[in-house]
Amino acid sequence: METTTDPPELVRVYQDHRVGLLRLAYLLTGSREHSEDLVQIAFASAMPRWDRIEQPLAYLRRTIVNQAADHHRRAARERTLPVPEPVTYPPEVDETWAEIQRLSLVQRTVVILRFYEDLTLVEIAAVMARPPATVRSDLKRALEHLRKALNP
C-alpha cells in the first residue's frame, strides 16, 4: 500500500491495524476474499480525506461495517448467501459460530463489534450510526437468542 504520496500516519495505521480490520471484515462476511476487498476499499476511501478524519480507526471500522452490509444486501438480491470457509474448531465454537451466523446482520454486527473488537456500546453506536439505546437493545436481543439456542 505504501507509496510516496501516502501520508505517514495512513501508512502507520495500515501497518498497525490491517490484520485486525481483516479479521473484522472476515467475521462480518465469512469470506477471506471479500475481507481483503473491504479493507482495501476502506483505506482507499480514507486516503483522499485522511487529513480531515479525526478518528481513523473508527472511520475504517465503520466503512468496513457499511461495506459488509452492502455485500450482504447484494448477496440476498442474488439469492446466494455467503458461506463461511470451512474451518475446524472445537464443537462448542462451531455451534456458537453457527448461531451467530443465524442472527440478523445488525445483531451479528453488534455481537462481533462488542465481543471481538471489544468496543463499548457508545463506540458501536458510532460505528453503526445508530443510537446507543438501540445498540443496547440489539445486543440484548442477540444474546437472548444465543442463550436460548445454545442452552435448550
Folded structure, characterized:
The protein is mainly alpha-helical and 152 residues long. It has two domains: 1-86, no CATH class; 88-152, Winged helix-like DNA-binding domain superfamily/Winged helix DNA-binding domain (Arc Repressor Mutant, subunit A), CATH 1.10.10. The chain contains seven helices and no strands. The longest helix is centred in the first third of the chain and has 22 residues, at 8-29. The chain is globular.
Structure, briefly:
This protein has 152 residues and is an all-alpha fold. The protein has helices at residues 8-29, 32-46, 56-77, 91-102, 105-116, 121-128, 132-150.
Topology, please?
Blueprint: H1 8-29, H2 32-46, H3 56-77, H4 91-102, H5 105-116, H6 121-128, H7 132-150
Helix pairs in contact: 1-2, 1-3, 2-3, 3-6, 4-7, 5-7, 6-7
Please give a handful of descriptors for the protein shown.
mainly alpha, transcription regulation, RNA_pol_sigma70_r4_t2, single chain, 2 domains, Arc Repressor Mutant, subunit A, 152 residues, RNA_pol_sigma_r3/r4-like
Uncertain runs: none
How many individual β-strands? 0
> Domains counted in the coordinates: how many?
2
The residue-averaged pLDDT reads 86
- Total helical segments: 7
Quote the distance from N terminus to C terminus. 48 Å
Q: Report the C-alpha radius of gyration, rounded.
A: 16 Å
The global form is globular
Order of helices and strands: HHHHHHH
Largest sheet: none
Structural class: mainly alpha
Percent range of helical residues: over 70%
Strand content: under 5%
